[in-house]
Specification:
By secondary structure, the chain is mainly alpha-helical. It has 2 domains: about 150 residues, no CATH class; about 260 residues, Neurolysin, domain 3 (Orthogonal Bundle), CATH 1.10.1370.30. Helix content is about 65%, strand content about 5%. It has a 3-stranded mixed β-sheet, sandwiched between helices. Helix 10 crosses helix 11. It is globular, with a radius of gyration of 23 Å.
């Protein structure tokens, strides 16, 4: 590391470590915190968020940054920087600029609201009553719109929110991609719906303790290091990280559906491998952080679907699954494979099949734009949600828990996050094509239970790089093609043509 950068990096690392304390408390809130502690936890999280923001926007940090970059443009002064250091400084400046647009009072109030909102979202979901959550969602939307105004935006405030999760993303760029995807998959869905349904897997019971043990087993097979991580249970599966040596996964289990827990574990395991694969020596800097949520999601979707719902994967792991769960003991492989890949419109995003999953995302993408462009009142959102499910999937959610209350994201103010899931599918499809080309025996190796080959390639070519390159540049160099829906459409069409004999 260039000597002139060390004081800035030291201060940035301290801020990151403060942020890790915030993450630990947030993780605890979702896993083990007593319900009655929500007010004190919200106050603690608010305090830490304010401390991080104050330090990041302090004159001390600004003066350190001024010694190495043009504070107006973000261009580094030093002539003898490596390309990685040059890129790092640009990212540090970007983060500093965004932080400085937000007043500390706003940050502390927003953090407190997020904690309370998440808590009341959980209560509303459990009670199946949107009215419990609605007042908090209304406040979150108002503050999130204010945040977009602080950041500044062009054409729509939603662009400022997209950029927070997928740098450079805009509705102008995304909408054509999503429109072409929709035009490709809805006719395929209609064709499949004319075919006979496959037999479903037995409804269990699948013991949750055994599911947890099997999830531990699959994570170890993927290369997840339990010395540097753990697996717990939460209302909504998520992965959080405090350092590459401390990465936490949560999932949830259904005694009637063993695949819900397995899919959640593989999905979050993909996220966790990314975090464990970051370079610990770069911790605290952009080079020690994931490049974008779209790339992050490509890792989870790759493991959950391209690998975890492939015939090669289950040719190896089905016998072990059947040994662990007697209800599956006599299910033939062909029936099992068809059942876990059956296309069937459903209400819950995280339980949906690969084909209809993106329709769930497109519905949220369109509603989020209406919230921030047209200012749709919160009270009208459940009806709007249900209308779009009827339009795109041909089903109407029977209640709030199966509809607008199913996701945690809006309670946290994470508007603009959902599109990264579909971008992750696009990137994953491009990566899968690249992996198959690089390793002609890849599927045979997976059939033999070798998952470490994939984990090693991803760690070398994506994880260890952090933010050395922008997401689209990284993917273009790795896969030889720009971001596009084409690889995913090709993959999903070929897969379901084979499964359904189209």
């Amino acid at each position: 590391m260039h000597a002139a950068l060390l004081p800035l990096i030291k201060e940035l690392t301290t801020i990151t470590e403060l942020g890790s304390i915030h993450s630990v408390l947030s993780w605890d809130q979702e896993t083990y915190m007593p319900q009655g502690a929500i007010e004190s936890r919200a106050a603690a999280l608010s305090l830490i968020a304010g401390l991080c923001h104050d330090r990041h926007t302090s004159q001390t940090f600004t003066d350190l940054l001024k010694t190495v970059v043009d504070i107006q443009t973000g261009q580094p002064f030093l002539a003898d920087l490596s390309p990685q250091e040059h890129r790092m400084l640009q990212e540090i400046h970007r983060d500093w600029r965004m932080a400085n647009t937000l007043p500390t009072d706003f940050v502390t109030r927003y953090s407190s609201l997020q904690s309370q909102s998440q808590y009341h979202w959980q209560k509303a979901r459990q009670a199946n009553d949107f009215s419990i959550f609605a007042p908090y969602l209304d406040k979150v939307i108002a503050m999130t719109r204010q945040k977009a105004d602080y950041f500044g935006w062009q054409y729509t405030p939603y662009n400022a929110l997209l950029d927070e999760y997928e740098p450079g993303a805009t509705t102008t760029a995304l909408t054509p991609l999503f429109t072409r995807l929709k035009e490709a998959i809805i006719p395929l869905l209609h064709t499949i719906q004319k075919k006979d349904a496959f037999s479903a897997l037995p409804k269990g019971p699948y013991d949750k303790a055994i599911q947890l043990k099997f999830s531990h087993f699959l994570l170890r097979e993927m290369g997840f290091e339990f010395d540097h991580g753990r697996l717990d249970i939460s209302t909504h599966p998520f992965t959080t990280q405090f350092h590459p040596t401390d990465v936490r996964i949560t999932t949830r289990f259904n005694e009637s559906d063993v695949m819900e827990g397995i899919s959640g574990t593989l999905h979050e395991g993909g996220h966790a491998l990314y975090e464990q694969g970051l370079d610990p020596a770069r911790f605290g800097t952009p080079l020690g952080a994931a490049v974008s949520l779209g790339i992050h999601e490509s890792q989870s979707r790759l493991w959950e679907n391209f690998i975890g719902k492939s015939p090669a994967f289950w040719q190896h792991y089905l016998p072990q699954l059947q040994s662990a769960f007697p209800p599956l003991a006599n299910v033939p492989f062909a029936d099992f494979y068809q059942a876990i890949n059956q296309v069937k419109p459903s209400f819950i995003r995280v339980e949906s099949d690969e084909l209809t999953y993106n329709l769930h995302i497109l519905i949220r993408y369109e509603i989020e734009q209406l919230i921030f462009q047209d200012q749709i009142p919160v009270q009208e959102l459940p009806e709007l949600w249900n209308q779009k499910y009827e339009e795109y999937l041909g089903i109407t959610p029977p209640d709030d828990a199966h509809g607008i209350l199913q996701d945690v994201h809006w309670s946290m103010g994470a508007f603009g996050y959902f599109p990264t899931y579909t971008l992750g599918n696009f990137y994953a499809a491009q990566l899968w094509e690249t992996l198959l080309s690089a390793f002609p025996a890849l599927e045979q190796n997976i059939q033999n239970g070798d998952l470490i080959q994939v984990r090693g390639w991803l760690k070398t070519h994506i994880h260890r790089l952090g933010k050395e390159k922008p997401a689209e540049t990284l993917m273009a160099e790795l896969t030889g093609q720009p971001l596009s829906e084409k690889a995913f459409v090709s993959y999903i069409t070929k897969k379901y043509n084979q499964i359904y004999g189209l």
